[in-house]
Inverse folding.
């Protein structure tokens, strides 16, 4: 064979057929992060969203761990909403992406007198700035103050009713199953990478072998009681065990990709669920927040990785862009 390269002897490249390479479009697929807390990140971190192609995002202004006082009172939660609303306009002006808010009552710590918040929520949800009710949903274990299950169901169902009445989606967290995840020092009541004292976590309020599954079933029960259409409910923090939601509901499953060190979720899990159930109800989210080690660029890496795993461009685009756009435009 005539050498193609002026190298001393034959090199591997001479043996290869000309490989196709990657389509340029892969670097340009826009994406929407339907669940994050980017208002709690730094300016530099928010810039990374724009640098890696984020078109828009929904920042959940509901996070019990940012309230200065415990137990949490209604005015503390309303402060979280007001703080995010107050800063939203500047975030939009400073960064090259669109941003909206999720407004909700997180069940990670009990809120006494939550009725006062439920009365105020519809006016917030009617704002153009608010794209979702969230994040909400049943939580098996609270921080500082337990929240009995009956009350959690009430506050979750009522918030889903507000979403249904307003015509916006609800984003519900689901408790992660960390049993397979290797977290060093966990037994000491701390998780490196997470700024939350696990020693203040209370005894679970769900008495079930599979707390995660039980919480998801209750979220779905609340959705039905609230009359919220399935395509207006996003179940966040999906994991490999997708079958229950995929086979029993028409809700969306959203995969948190920015902290695999804690959740154990990787692009392979996203590809596997798409392979098995199709792309129609699968979403990707960062859930990035200042309270834990998370990587904004993980979203873009997931796009590249899904392609390397064999998904075509149209399927990837549907999952990272068209699905979230449809959820947010649902009426
Ligand atoms: Zn979140």
């Amino acid at each position: 064979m005539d050498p193609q390269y002026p190298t001393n002897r034959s090199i591997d490249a001479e043996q290869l057929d000309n490989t196709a390479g990657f389509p340029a479009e892969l670097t340009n697929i826009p994406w929407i992060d339907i669940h994050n807390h980017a208002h709690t990140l730094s300016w530099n971190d928010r810039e990374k969203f724009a640098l890696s192609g984020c078109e828009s995002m929904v920042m959940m202004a509901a996070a019990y761990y940012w309230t200065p006082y415990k137990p949490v009172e209604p005015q503390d939660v309303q402060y979280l909403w007001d703080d995010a609303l107050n800063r939203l306009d500047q975030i939009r002006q400073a960064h090259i992406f669109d941003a909206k808010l999720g407004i909700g009552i997180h069940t990670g710590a009990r809120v006494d007198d939550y009725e006062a918040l439920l009365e105020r929520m519809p006016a917030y949800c009617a704002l153009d700035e608010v794209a979702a009710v969230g994040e909400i949903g049943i939580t098996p274990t609270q921080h500082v103050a337990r929240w009995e299950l009956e009350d959690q169901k009430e506050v979750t169902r009522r918030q889903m009713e507000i979403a249904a009445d307003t015509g916006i989606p609800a984003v519900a967290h689901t408790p992660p199953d960390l049993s397979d995840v290797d977290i060093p020092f966990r037994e000491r009541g701390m998780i490196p990478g997470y700024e939350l004292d696990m020693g203040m976590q209370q005894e679970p309020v769900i008495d079930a072998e599979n707390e995660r599954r039980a919480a998801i079933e209750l979220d779905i029960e609340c959705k039905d009681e609230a009359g919220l259409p399935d395509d207006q409910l996003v179940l966040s923090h999906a994991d490999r065990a997708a079958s229950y939601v995929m086979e029993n509901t028409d809700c969306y499953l959203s995969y948190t990709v920015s902290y695999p060190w804690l959740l154990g979720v990787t692009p392979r899990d996203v590809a596997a669920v798409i392979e098995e159930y199709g792309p129609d109800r699968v979403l990707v989210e960062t859930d990035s927040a200042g309270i834990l080690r998370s990587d904004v660029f993980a979203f873009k890496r997931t796009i590249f990785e899904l392609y390397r795993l064999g998904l075509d461009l149209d399927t990837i685009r549907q999952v990272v862009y068209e699905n979230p756009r449809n959820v947010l435009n649902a009426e």
The longest helix spans residues 74-94. The chain has one domain: 28-176+183-329.
